[in-house]
Amino acid sequence: MCSHQTASFSINTDREALLSFKSQISQNPQSLSFSWDRNTSPCNWTGVTCNTRNRRVASINLSGHGLTGSISPSIGNLSFLTSLQLQNNQIRGPIPKEITNLYRLRVLNLSSNSLEGFLTSNLSKLIELRILDLTSNMITGIVPNQLGDLKNLTILNLGKNLLHGPIPPSLSNISSLTVLSLGTNSLSGLVPYELGRLQRLQVLDLTINNLSGTIPPSIYNVSSLESLVIASNNFWGRFPSNIGYTLPKLLVFNVCFNKFSGEIPASLYNLTNIKVIRAAHNLLEGTIPPGLGNLPFLEMYNIGFNKLVWGRDQNLDSFIKSLSNSSKLNFLAFDGNLLEGVIPVSIGNLSKNISKLFMGGNRFTGKIPSSIGDLTGLTLFNITDNSLTGEIPQEIGKLKGLQVLELARNRLSGRIPESFGDLGALNEINLSHNILEGGIPPSFINFKNMLSMDLSNNMLNGSIPNGVLSLPSLSAVLNLSKNLFSGPIPQDISRLESLVSLDLSSNNFSGHIPSSIKDCQSLEKLNMASNNLDGPIPDALAEVKGLEFLDLSSNQLSGVIPPKLQELQAMKFLNLSFNNLGGWAPSSGIFKDHSKAYMEGNPKLCIHATCRKTRTHFKILKKGQKVYHIYSIIKFTPQGTIYECLI
């Protein structure tokens, strides 16, 4: 009887702790609700599991329940708790220090919330802990040295927080550690040499921090490593040439955005199971090592933005053929190097799974082969900043899933293919800085998902098809500048309600600025300079409250400057120079700062405050017995200063 009462009291203690926890938690209405009934056993409550031996609460799993609020200190009263999983919610506030009372706890997962405050060193009291996952919160402070006392820990995830300071060498004491993830913080200093003692480590993620120095050689000898992710730091030095032998289980090698030098280690290509090689944005030089054909499981290969060149027997054709066995390849980038030559027909033989292909910023010449249309899995194709010539192949229209097309800064000529209208998934197109001619194909009306369009710096002509201005999805950039477009700017411009930047400068547009521009309420930049626009500046422009940049210079605009333009508080740059504007220039807002507001070249415009004044002077002169009253009227007008003398 006494034993039964003790058990009853214990489960009641757990019930009260859980109800106190629930009192500080609320739920997002869109989430599945749960209810804990005081009159039933907590062992039957949603997300609660009890120990079958003593009927005490052993596990709480409320992940992804849309919880808000904070974690109650009462959680520390659940003395038999072994697993607490509250990930993927919107819980805020600090981690209560009482959580360190849960000395039986093995799993603590609070990832993907909005928790804040410091990591308490008392977490080291949770000596049974196997998994500590606090990823994606707003936790600040340093990584406590005392975490090294968690000798049973296998997974330590502290990534995507606001942690700073050094990586404590004491973490090397956790010999059972298989995952150490500290990425996306503000950690600084060197990588401790001692981490090389973690001979069971499979994942080391230090990406996106402020770490510096060289990678200790001991790290390259952790033979259990499967994922080495150290991108976006300030690391330098050379990679060991034998890295492919000392890290035989490596599947992910990500060292992007650092200052590594020397050559790509050829031994990497002996890792026949490797899936990801990312070494972009470093100072690597030399040639691309042979042996890519040995990597059948390769999914991502990114060596862009280095100083790589072809070897003696290498060219783009041989490089592409070496990837013929990599049937799982979906991301290929070798842009921003010193590679040269023509693009071979064999490019169409790349993996049909390839989704993103970056070739820009090299020295490729010749035409884009029509076989590019065989890469039907492409969602992104970037070949900017080369010296390509000839026409854009119609076959690009076969890439039905293409979302981003970047062909800028080449010497492509001819007309924009009508087949581009078949690219219904396209959301970004950049054909700028070529010598394309003709009009914008009417088929562009099919771009229902277009976010950004840049056709600037070409020789395109004709009027803007209504279809281009009927794309409500355009929300980033529409740039048609530096072409030969003519005709009026259509009233349909009002349909670009979400557009942030519109550049129509340096064309031959004529007629009035349409007052419907007021409906483009998201505009921050509007450039219509260097056209043949006439008529007044529409008052409606002042209704675009977020406008920061406005350039209407070098047109034939007339009339007065709308006074309400001075009420645009977001305005940072205004250029109305070289028009036929007249009257008085406004004097408030942006107009007060002559380093940001340009109005010269308008001979009828009165810019200075003195233009507003008319002064009358008189004086008396005596000559002998005669008295002369001389009146002098000085008028300041937009046409200049006029003196009238009356005697």
UniProtKB/TrEMBL annotation:
Its main location: membrane. This is non-specific serine/threonine protein kinase. InterPro entries: Leu-rich_rpt, Leu-rich_rpt_typical-subtyp, LRR_dom_sf, LRR_N_plant-typ, StomDev_PlantInt_Reg. Keywords: ATP-binding, Cell membrane, Glycoprotein, Kinase, Leucine-rich repeat, Membrane, Nucleotide-binding, Receptor, Repeat, Serine/threonine-protein kinase, Signal, Transferase, Transmembrane, Transmembrane helix. GO terms for molecular function: ATP binding; protein serine/threonine kinase activity. Transmembrane segments: none annotated. It is found in: Cell membrane. It is an enzyme of class 2 (transferase). It comes from the Eukaryota. One of its GO terms (biological process) is detection of stimulus. Its EC number is 2.7.11.1.
